[in-house]
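Hi all, long-time lurker, first post. I run a small reading group and we've been trying to get comfortable going from sequence to structure in the token notation. Rather than ask abstract questions, I figured I'd post a concrete chain and ask someone more experienced to write out its structure so we can walk through it together at our next meeting. Sequence below, copied exactly:
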Amino acid sequence: MNVTSIHFKIMYCLRRNIYSISEIAQILNISEFKAKRYIKDLEYLFEEETVENIHNKINKVPKIIEKLRKDQSLTPEERQMYVILKFLETDIINLSQICEEVGVTRRTLTNDLNNLKEILEKFHLEIKNLTRYGIILEGKESDKRGFFNLYLIKIFIEKKYLPKIFDKIFNKFKNLKEEYEIHKVLKEIFVFTNIKDSTFVYLDLEIKSYIAILRKKYQDSSTDIKSIESEIHKDFIIFLKKLDIYTNFEINLIIEISKKKYRGNLQKIYPQKTNEAKKLIKYISENMKTDIKITKELLLRIMLITIVRDYKREFNINEFYIFNNAIGKAYILPYKKITELLKNYFQELDSFDLANLTMTFLSNIYLDTQKKIGQTEDITIVYHFLHKDMIKDLCEDIGLKKDLQKYKLVLLFDLEEYLKKNNPKVIITFEDIDFSGYNIEDRLVEFNFPITKYDKLKLKPFLENV
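-- Answer (accepted) --
Happy to help. Here is the structure in token form:
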């Protein structure tokens, strides 16, 4: 039996809670037939006959998932990812060597590459066979870097569930991050450009940095260009050139990012998305028979989700959210109703976006009052892709008032540096984040929304010491 990333996603779900077949299918956006088949595989693997027994075994032996990763097989799409990462470092790769590394025949890998060719065509790129050497990626260097940039975002998002063969590549990125002080550089870029903190902006710029370093020797007329001449950005351009990381090609892209993409008014940049968001609010409002005011803040939060959703659909990123199925009727009824409305409205929506949008609306419709945790201090909230305002709403649900300054919001991008200087007693997250490299298991509390008043009990073991 081949154990794939889908099996591991189900394992991580069952580590949190006991889910039915239909709930697992909903979380992973797969059919119930497939979910049942994967559960059968896990029953065989764990030598247990029920979902509940698998859940108990995973929690009884915490390291069991990591041990199983050693035998994880690559899916066809993951083999494509692996080839792409190889092309990132060199334009010519040896097909026989790749076959040996990923454990498949040359014929199988060739079929995978045929599917990859269709994706590459959109970027005016082509894989060609070289009889003696292997295969070569042909096209303009600017197109290659654009493709790598977008595809690496997909790979970083799905990092947690990729096979161990990818660890070597991610370790290389980690070493580059330390060697070139990428975290410090990006922080300074944000100061120069006055861009607000955003995971996607950080990830975009971080990936651009890795590409610039790894592709520095691969230049052609499309990337060997003059930098933008701008009096306004003069000091910023001088700063970027002194870093010895970016070519003029990346410098120009970074300048354009600072000028347009993230500082502008989203409603002006994406008028169509603004109208779509307004229609969605009206649709939910009418069907829930409640008055949802169309505010600038609500529009922004919905638009950020739907804009990213378009990218995810293009690159087949099926992000998922392990929702809280142990919730009371006060939340479950409106939560389920909004969920169904959204599924009907969008037709195609992965479970992360579904949960994110549902809670965005639910926060506006229903605000539950809970007892506040008055004496808690030294709490850190780590977030990744959720909006800051959503995090603040969720913190309030577990009893952390917005105005008490009792907790620190830390972007996942900043966590490593933050832990070097700080030692929080409690670390909370509302997302499915891979914390395996941070050594914080003894103080980590993971919540799944919707949040209920009973979820505060997860903090109880820490309250005596805080």
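A couple of things your group might point at:
Residues 379-463 form a domain with the Rossmann fold fold (CATH 3.40.50).
Confidence is low (pLDDT under 50) at residues 366-372.
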